[in-house]
Amino acid sequence: MNFILYDGRWREHLLPFTYTRPIGEIRVGITTIREKWELLLKTRVSFLTQEYLQQKYPLVVNDNNIVIES
Hints:
Strand order of the largest sheet: 4-1-5
Radius of gyration: 12 Å
Shape: globular
Number of helices: 2
Order of helices and strands: EEEHEHE
Structural class: alpha/beta
Distance between the termini: 17 Å
Number of domains: 1
């Protein structure tokens, strides 16, 4: 199972933080949203974000994908 964190409708509300990173890379407390999901799911996750950020945060696509609005 492959999990993908997707920048949904809240991206625009989180500017300027989301100019340089996906929502999942924003810190909430001591960990990022991505780290919280990885602890819960016990696996790595990837990002579906803006095109200009996608090179730094590569998207991994497998046969079975679950997309989570981060």
